[in-house]
Predict the structure.
Amino acid sequence: MAVQLPEGALGRYEADGYLLLESFVDDSWLARLNTATDRLIDASRTAASDDFRFDREPDHSADDPRLRRINSPVDLDPTFEEFSLDGPAADLAQALLGPDVRFHHSKLNIKWNDGGEEVKWHQDIQFWPHTDFSPLTIGIYLCDVDEAMGPMGIVPGSHAGELYDLTSPDGRWSGSLSDDDVARAQVANADYLMGPAGSATVHNCCAVHGSAANESDRMRPLLLQTYSRADSYPLLGVGTNGKAGHNAHRLIRGSAPTSLTVQGRTMPTAPDWFRGTYTSIFDHQQADG
């Protein structure tokens, strides 16, 4: 179903690098998403410590689960799969990116109550580089979010600025801006996105963003899913692109491009056999003979 963006929303996204759409998701979808979330939280109570589905806080336990993140929920429950690949989130991605859309990955950041951990200032594209900067992430607040809950803050216009080094001074990957870069990124100007349950956040992959710890007595589940234009390709061999989940890189709307431009040279490309069957060059050439 097509999404009708509010007047001027696309222009604001392009200028600022982010959007907030209050009450974007209706009550029916919210109930389904929260029920699916509860199922996975319950599963975390008895899951093995090395179960990749769950990123736990240090004091997580079966009696008192405390999760930081559920990894790739789109691969874990059909509700998330439908929502992200063929539901409201996919509709919104298409409205922002155009007719041809590729899915990259999903995650559910929980930020538990009474001290759920902060997310330090960072940009996303360094984690999963693509051939362009079209990737964007759509977040859905599954509950009402206020200032005490550690809402996401985004620096307006930062998507068009510097791409920062997310390593520490000793060369270790930290995934966050250094103190000097935080000052240069002008995070004091960040806009903190709050709103009722069902509100959608959108941010470009280059936007500087982060969030404080959750000091409230309510957890703050934020469902996140990332998309790009269909002619934007994730670069394997760097970052998390090779670990993005079973549905990663899937074309979910429109048609796949038949050519690719690299360093100003355009070439027709082979089909995408990521989920299909490729035999050999001989079979394809002999089929034409």
